[in-house]
Amino acid sequence: MKLKIFILVSLLSIFVTCKDNRKEHISQLVNEWQEKEIVFPQNLVFTRYATDTTDYQIPKSEYKVLIYIDSIGCTSCKLQLHKWKELIHYVDSVTNKNVPFLFFFHPKDSKEIRYLLKRDGINFPVCLDMEDQLNKQNHFPSDMTFQTFLLDKDNKVVILGNPVHNTIVRNLYLEQLTGKDHSTKKIPKTTAQALETERDFGTFDKIETKETYIEIKNTGENPLVIVDISTTCGCTVATYDKRPAKPGESLRVEIKMTPKDTGFFDEVVTIQYNSINNQPVKVKIKGNVR
Fold this sequence. Notes:
There is one protein chain. By secondary structure, the protein is α+β, with helices and mostly antiparallel strands. The protein has 2 domains: 3-178, 3-Layer(aba) Sandwich (Glutaredoxin), CATH 3.40.30; 192-289, Immunoglobulins (Immunoglobulin-like, Sandwich). Helix content is 26%, strand content 30%. The strands form 3 sheets. A 7-stranded mixed sheet has the order 2-1-5-4-3-6-7.
């Protein structure tokens, strides 16, 4: 799949409300990276849980996914490791584990990376690139949206974009890897609403994990299917009913909050579904961690 198609169908549709200069910047960025070869430094060191060194060599597979995480901002929010875990499990099941996922971290705090990897059970090799060698050799875009790449066997970029942050990009990855259309464009559309749009966890201790659920009601005339859920913080994990809901029925979304820091939080859970107007359902969760 050519990245020109990726521009027209995916990125520009994501930023339909942004200014023309933003669209032009995205278009130029993707064209710049089209079929660009990623150069991997020599003597890379991979570890498990960012602790134990492991003898791992980057395989020469037909495809590989490269994820670069810089030291800017909230690492947990950017990573969404639980979503990567789900995606990797699915890709492994449909490709017979033939697509490696290469995580490169340039962390400001290696202890945080170690904590996140252990918390989410990510036990495959990752690279702690303390000197930022990979970025220095390839000069990745500064926008984290464009720091993830699907590469071919020659390490050339096939698709640019993060598949766990955007459903459209995820479908493009899966279509390229499996040769099948994973989009929801053929699913009949409907409307939906959250029976509650806000949950307040109140004040609780940092060692606590808070859990709740919300119901998404099908208010339209066709079956309701939840496609994806994203959160604004990696401390919040959401799971959902995979079955379709008939008109008038509801689907359950379970939300679990495991705080990493103290203080007030005000996060948004975004539920993507087969919407008539492509508008997701959004639910706010808030509270105070002491």
